[in-house]
Amino acid sequence: QVQLVESGGGSVQSGKSLTLSCVAEGHPTSDYRLGWFRQAAGKSREGLAAVDSDGSTVYEDSVARRFMISRDNSNNTLYLKMNVLKPEDTAMYYCAAGPDTPFLSRSSKLVDGFYIYWGQGTQVTVSS
Questions:
Q1: What is the rounded CA–CA span in Å between residue 97 and residue 56?
Q2: Which of 36, 28, 21, 39 is nearest to 3 (CA)?
Q3: Quick one: which of 123, 125, 119 has its CA closest to 22?
């Protein structure tokens, strides 16, 4: 069993940066694929970025040039560095862990159905 705990959310002005963290407890996650998702009010959850156990990454197009996902297996922590934040980035942000299934398509790595452990989320609010 893996417990995921996100932190680092908050309220910022447009154009600023935030770094989210996600600490995994209960079991090492070095063999898992890890991902960041978000859900804005009234919208469905969307995948933003994922990192495989070998460090390869994939991003959703709208954040690819502004967000960076990284993992530190030595302390079981996942990060999301978010730059040039926009009001439309306002959402609850979640980290997730799932089996690092081989030969999964890049787009599928951003689908929430391929993840089995989820954090409680951290709120990010961006004002104009």
A1: 15
A2: 28
A3: 119
User: pLDDT digit string (tens) for 25-51?
Assistant: 988 889 999 999 999 999 999 999 999
Give the DSSP letter of residue 69.
E
Q: How many CA atoms lie within 13 A of 64 on its CB side?
A: 7
Alpha-carbon torsion (24, 29, 32, 33), positive or negative: positive
CA–CA separation, 114 and 80 (whole Å): 19
| One-letter identity of residue 40 | A
DSSP-based three-state secondary structure for 43: coil
Rounded Cα distance between 120 and 124, Å, is: 13
CA within 13 Å, CB half, 70: 9
